[in-house]
Amino acid sequence: MLVGKRALVTGASRGIGAAIARRLSAEGAEVIVNYTSSAAAASTLVKEIGQQGGVATSIQADVSVPADITRLFDEVSARFGHLDILVNNAGIAQPALLDQVTPESIDQQFALNVKGLLLATQAAVRLFPESGGVVVNLSSGGAKSPIPYMPVYSATKGAVDVLTRALAVELGPRNIRVVGISPGLTITDGTSEVTSNQAMHDYYISRSPLGRLGLPDDIARVVAFAVSDQSAWITGETIQVSGGLVG
Ligand SMILES: NC(=O)c1ccc[n+]([C@@H]2O[C@H](COP(=O)([O-])OP(=O)(O)OC[C@H]3O[C@@H](n4cnc5c(N)ncnc54)[C@H](OP(=O)(O)O)[C@@H]3O)[C@@H](O)[C@H]2O)c1
């Protein structure tokens, strides 16, 4: 149970992030829902959590912009004082073969998936209590088995896995655990082009021993485990949550 804990989930207005916010709230945490543009979706989620008896609030910030990260955590500090859990969920994928990759697309993906994650973690751990806390980083199967058409995205998630290990070493003495969660193909707005394409859908099903794609709550349940005391001896590891997806 996460009663008495306060969690911030980046990119929580939709998809996996929204499912994580719902799940952490169901386990008793107070939740801060970060979003960048979907104010209505974030507000609906906050209301829904409230109707279920939970406590949530939303804060707009573009996590690819350092000044926004500073504003986000200044607001968390001023309104709430401290944080116990950070879930670095916000991430973007821009499919492109090498020949189509542009400097802008490299910068945009690294700015959110790597730089934003690192700066959000830096700001969050300053607000963690002396007793410690947990950081969860959303990785991707692409980090270990690069996804066709997504070399840059796969590289950002490889960097995320390295940061999970490196920050776990640095923050362990402060009793801060850092855990990676690596989803397999999960049905969200971010994957709609793939999941709505019958040939791609069938290909992924054929590679999936459990015969289905992931749902956001499949991932959220493991995040809830990762931030709980049930996983007190796990840090620096990235857990695959993919239904056994092969390659
Ligand atoms: N879905 C999958 O199959 C899959 C597989 C492996 C890994 N992942 C990883 O899991 C995470 C979530 O994926 P998803 O599929 O749920 O994504 P999604 O459906 O595309 O949702 C993205 C969420 O991130 C927010 N966001 C986007 N850019 C942001 C920014 N600059 N600052 C703050 N928030 C931002 C969006 O907010 P707005 O609504 O305001 O735009 C939205 O809430 C990502 O890190 C992704 O790489 C997903």
Helix content: 40-55%
Order of helices and strands: EHEHEHEHEHEHHHE
Q: How many strand segments?
A: 7
With helices defined by DSSP (H or I, 4 residues minimum), what is the helix count?
A: 8
| Low-confidence blocks of residues | none
Radius of gyration, Cα only, in angstroms?
A: 17 Å
The distinct ligands, each listed once, are: NADP nicotinamide-adenine-dinucleotide phosphate
Query: Largest sheet, if any?
Result: 7 strands, parallel
- Structural class by helix and strand composition: alpha/beta
CATH architectural group: 3-Layer(aba) Sandwich
- The rough form would be described as globular
Number of domains: 1
CATH domain class = Alpha Beta
Distance between the termini: 34 Å
Can you characterise this structure?
The chain is an alpha/beta fold. It has one domain (6-241): NAD(P)-binding Rossmann-like Domain (Rossmann fold). Helix content is 44%, strand content 15%. It is built from eight helices and seven strands. The protein has helices spanning 15-26, 39-51, 66-80, 103-125, 151-171, 192-195, 198-206, 216-227; strands spanning 6-9, 30-35, 56-60, 85-88, 133-138, 176-183, 238-241. The protein has a seven-stranded parallel β-sheet with strand order 3-2-1-4-5-6-7, sandwiched between helices. Strand 2, helix 2 and strand 3 form a beta-alpha-beta unit. Helix 4 (103-125) runs parallel beside helix 5 (151-171). The model has no long low-confidence stretch (mean pLDDT 96). NADP nicotinamide-adenine-dinucleotide phosphate is lined by residues 10-17, 34-38, 41, 62-64, 89-93, 112, 138, 140, 183, 185-186, 188-191.
